[in-house]
Specification:
10 helices, single chain, 3-stranded mixed beta sheet, 6-stranded parallel beta sheet, 296 residues, alpha/beta, Rossmann fold, 16% strand
Length: 296
């Protein structure tokens, strides 16, 4: 097995590579940070030709609901045309299995808990590009494809806290800088946060267990707890106290108030069953970040 991680230097990709290294699993990376753009079909073709790839994890999409509306051309060209290039290369070089990371933004407001057969009705351009990516993958001739739809990934307390576009990372950064923490809405919005280690675990299990076969399949990957924004506010107040000053702002139109998954399909087929440890994990992240601040 030779795994290509397209977008290996991003938040999820960097955690996957470290896990694969520990497990002595062979992988090769391709990332925009290194000048490897999935929109460049010729360069991507050479990469596939030179590396004899059997399995692909495609993470190289631009993320962020609000930024997608600010930079539509970049999001459309990368997330749609770039994904089409990846799929074409997988077909050309007879890749056995493609795992494509989508986003819960594809569902729009929805009616939580959201199941995989629910309508895709995105509110944002970013969500639209991810729906397009799913359609491209599901119409491909690749031997096996898996679409994973994560719901609000967090974690990585041994790294930099969380992915940089997450509310947790932004709040920690604002607190460290002595700025007010920006809260969009009244704090009643909620998410089904999923821990990065659970994402890595389920991705590796899908790849390594060769007995699970399907043509095209989609799984919601969410946490086992529904967390309100007010719950996170209270944890920040308890942990950093005087540094936790909050500024409440109107919720942007593209933001979704309530978003969490029904993960029963992933549990039934993949054995996905994340632990309920959001509060403990978040406290661990905050303590590490502010311990380093005090000792620098």
């Amino acid at each position: 097995m030779k795994i290509a991680i397209i977008g290996h230097l991003g938040f999820v990709g960097s955690h996957l590579t470290k896990y694969f290294d520990k497990q002595n699993i062979s992988w090769v990376g391709y990332d925009l940070v290194s000048g490897q753009d999935i929109r460049d079909a010729h360069k991507l073709d050479r990469f596939f030709e030179e590396n004899q790839i059997s399995h692909v994890i495609h993470l190289a999409n631009l993320a962020g609901v609000r930024r997608g509306n600010e930079y539509p051309e970049e999001y459309i060209s990368t997330n749609i045309l770039g994904t089409l290039n990846v799929v074409k290369m997988c077909e050309k070089y007879n890749v056995d299995h493609l795992i494509y990371y989508s986003s819960s933004s594809v569902y729009g407001e929805g009616n939580p808990p959201i199941v995989e057969i629910d309508n895709k009705n995105p509110k944002s351009l970013y969500g639209i590009t991810k729906v397009a990516g799913e359609l491209i993958v599901n119409s491909s001739k690749i031997e096996q494809t898996t679409i994973l739809i994560p719901f609000t990934i967090y974690g990585g307390e041994t790294e930099s806290g969380c992915r940089k576009d997450s509310v947790i990372h932004k709040w920690i950064a604002q607190s460290k800088q002595g700025k007010p923490i920006t809260v969009y809405g009244d704090g009643s919005s909620c998410r089904g946060f999923v821990y990065i280690d659970d994402i890595v675990d389920i991705t590796s299990k899908i790849l390594i267990n060769q007995n699970r076969k399907w043509k095209h399949e989609t799984f919601n990957i969410g946490g086992s707890e529904v967390i309100k924004l007010n719950d996170i506010i209270n944890i920040f107040k308890d942990e950093i106290q005087t540094l936790a000053r909050f500024q409440y702002l109107p919720m942007p139109d593209v933001d979704i108030k309530v978003n969490y998954a029904d993960t029963s399909k992933a549990k039934r087929i993949l054995g996905f069953d994340p632990k309920k440890m959001f509060k403990e994990n978040l406290i661990k992240i905050i303590k590490k970040e502010f311990y380093e601040l005090k000792n620098n």
